[in-house]
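Illustration: Methyltransferase type 11 domain-containing protein.
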Amino acid sequence: MGPLPSRTPVRVGRKSTTREPIIQEPEAHEPEGPEAYEPEATRRDAGVAESSRANRGWWDRNADEYQVEHGTFLGDDRFVWGPEGLDEVEAELLGPPEELKGKDVLEIGAGAAQCARWLAAQGARPVALDLSHRQLQHALRIGGSFPLVCADAGALPFADGSFDLACSAYGALPFVADPRLVLREVRRVLRPGGRFVFSVTHPIRWAFPDEPGPEGLSVSSSYFDRTPYVEQDEEGRAVYVEHHRTLGDRVRDIAVSGFRLVDLVEPEWPSWNTSEWGGWSPLRGGLIPGTAVFVCERD
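Result:
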């Protein structure tokens, strides 16, 4: 990793040091030794196409390590909204579990489809969508009887009014250059009265270094600097991109895209959670919010 810029944002998909693969199959390995290249971290513009290409590749390369590192916390069939551990069983942001039976639900940025698997157990009819083919291979590994779809959230391959509900736990929205494109697509595939609930890194975190210890408690840059965080290769091509929106930006994106914001949840760090996840930790979680969950409805 090259030197980080003065403002280090939250990396939702921080790379693990664990190398053990979950899916046992021959794969091309990344180069090691002198020929290996650590991406350079920088701040620069990155458009829709570049962001999509970079993040598809990053998640395909890092899905194995992500599932090794975080699979135990996520479980195979839990619905967790973020590193704090807010569980849909208690939160009921999509509605009471008994009312999910028979509902058509789209999970966006599903990863290994843990949330979709929980929804199916409640009697819902989920569809799990992710940009990364490798993440969906992990969904196949764990199993489930619901459809898996590899597609971009900005171009959903579904007819208008296909779903009653949509959800996304740290999926798609942090990584796209045009969140309104995704929101409008979600609105299009929802039926009237449908609900979309999504969680992202709390915007305030972008003013702080992405560190779990005391060094992550001092403001290091402007909250209002919306320049994307980019990791790029030796030729300047993005290999990972994350986009910042302020809290006000998120609210405006929701309203302009035809949704009504009915709740904004900022989960508090629970005493039972002693784990660290990248820049999330009990220390930081007890002082500043780490996740924002937006509950939206289509009129």
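Reading the tokens back as a structure: The beta strands are 40-43, 104-108, 125-130, 148-150, 163-169, 190-201, 229-232, 238-242, 259-265, 291-298.
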